[in-house]
Amino acid sequence: MSRIRRPGIDRIRGLAIILMMVDHVLVACSTLGVTNDGLMLTRLSLTRLALPLFLLVSGALWVEQLPRPRRLGSVIAAAVALNVGMAVYWPEFSTPEVLVVWSLAAVAAPIIVRHPLAMITLGYIQWQHWQVAWDGYQPGIVVLFLAVGALASRAGLTPGMGAYGRLLPAPLGALGRKPLTWYVGHLTALTVLVAIVR
Fold first, then answer.
1. DSSP character for 45?
2. CA separation, residue 183 to residues 55, 75, 178, 180, 186 (Å)
3. Disulfide check for 145: which of 3, 28, 55, 123 has CB 3.0–4.6 Å away?
């Protein structure tokens, strides 16, 4: 079964991808010693919206269709390859990066969709009190935002999200329709760039 395309939702996801790309470019600049207060302020403010936006949309779409096993397998394979490459050539980047954490959460997608309030609570508790000893995003914060997206969808708010999304420029939809390609592609390119410049 193919997913129903929602242009507004695709545009929101495209915006999230753009913000994420900008954030990662700034991380690469910092790694290479090119930084200033303005760049750091951008990372601490504007680009922080990338993760919540992407996860809210993801959780909302899971209510309509859970991640298919084949697709999830592709995402996991891409996440493993990306993280191995980055660990070798860009070790300063926080690992595991969010694609790994999203993949772990996606395995539990049926539970997140069925029990969003419980998962919001558990996600918050893990994030605040039972932290995993790694540099990447805590699983709890990822699960929390996915569950909020699922809850919003179950409350009938997804069409409203799409309506706001349609106010965004149409080209963002092209990015939003291919999130894995853009995500893995830009991080691979930045990892190669960091390795070469270094």
1. T
2. 14, 11, 9, 5, 6
3. 55
Q: For residues 80 and 95, what is the distance between their CA atoms, to the nearest angstrom?
A: 11
For residue 88, what are the CA distances in angstroms to 79, 92, 151, 190? Answer: 14, 10, 39, 13
Question: Please, are residues 172 and 10 in contact by the beta-carbon 8 Å criterion?
Answer: yes
CA distance 26 to 191: 13
Peptide bond before 96: cis, by omega within 30 degrees of 0? yes
Residue 46's identity, in one-letter code, is: L
- Cα–Cα distance measured from residue 121 to residue 144, given in angstroms and rounded to the nearest whole number: 8
Summarised one tens digit per residue, pLDDT across range 98-150 is 999 999 999 999 999 999 999 999 999 999 999 999 999 999 999 999 999 99
The rounded distance, in Å, linking the Cα atoms of 8 and 62 is 16
162 touches 2 (CB < 8 A):
no
